[in-house]
Amino acid sequence: MDGWLSAGGRKLVLGMVHLSPLPGTPFHEEGSFERTLETAVRSARALEEGGADGCLIQTVDRVYTVDERSDPARTVAMGLIVRAVAEATGERFLVGAQLMRNALQASLAVTKVAGGSFIRAGALVGQTLSPHGMVRPDPLAVMDYRRRIGARHVAVIAEVDSMHFRWFGGEKTTAEVARAAQSAGADAVSLCHPDEDTALEMIASVRAAAPQLPVILAGHTRHENAARLMAAADGAFVGTCLESGGWGGEIDAGRVAAYVDIVRKVER
Fold first, then answer.
1. Torsion-angle region of residue 213: left (phi > 0), alpha (psi -120 to 50) or beta?
2. Is the pTM of this model over 0.85?
3. Which among 62, 85, 166, 268 is least surrounded, fewest beta carbons within 10 Å?
4. 3-class SS at 54?
């Protein structure tokens, strides 16, 4: 990895680009793919125009498999969207992929081939209970695949305590999970909590346990709390507060610019 996750003290603002169900999934609407691709490109351009550092392109389905499987049509569709976004934005704009729920090898393949920069792993170590069953990652297989396809430069940001991941059994602290993820090959970790003080405590615990490990907020940031949370973290995945009309709406470049302005003031 080239170190962009922790370079120069810059706080990363990574906007969320949520996709409608893709081909190969049970709730895909026939004929909707081109519209989904065009919306993703518009969203990424709005993020770039507003000054964001990049985006995470994330599949949004109503049901998911809990293992590494990703339907071939779904994987191809995701690759086409990531490529289109990468081509429509500047070379410094970071493009990430997350094939939910935890298709990490497919996410790596898409990102490597389509010209992306990073993936977010819903689960890299341990296991977590989801509404669709137990998610049991295989970090050895993921890291071996990453090496085999020449994707070491593709950063892996691992969830360690968030709406997508809780250590099943609860016997490990957030900091312990973060250190385990780092040992397994994660380049950064992401975490969040709806309570601001709790989120800050989680960040501090990871800082103490793994001082060199970048910490990205996985959610629950908005314009009102960005200054406080981003003062402690290295970056954030930002969604709803950038979308007109709430979650799933069009990304508004003005909302992005206002959020980015708050973050840049924190850096000074």
1. beta
2. yes
3. 268
4. strand
Distances in whole angstroms, Cα of residue 135 to Cα of each of 125, 131, 235? 10, 10, 26
For tokens 């995701």, name the residue.
78
Choice between 140 and 268, residue whose per-residue pLDDT is larger: 140
Cα 21–Cα 238–Cα 82 angle in degrees, nearest 5: 45
Looking at this protein, which amino acid is placed at residue 167?
W
Query: Using one digit for the tens of pLDDT, what is the confidence trace for 23-44?
Result: 999 999 999 999 999 999 999 9
Q: Is 8 left (phi over 0), alpha (psi -120 to 50) or beta?
A: left
pLDDT reported for residue 1: 45
Alpha helix (H) ranges present in the chain?
Answer: 33-49, 72-88, 104-114, 139-148, 174-184, 196-209, 226-232, 253-267
Segment among 68-77, 246-255, 257-266 with least mean pLDDT:
246-255
Calpha distance 11→266 (Å, rounded): 9
**pLDDT for the residue numbered 247:** 67
Cis peptide bond prior to 10, omega within 30° of 0: no
Task: Give Cβ neighbours of residue 16 (< 8 Å, ≥ 6 apart).
Answer: 55, 56, 58, 237, 238, 239, 242
Can you state the angle between helices 139-148 and 104-114, rounded to 10 degrees? 20
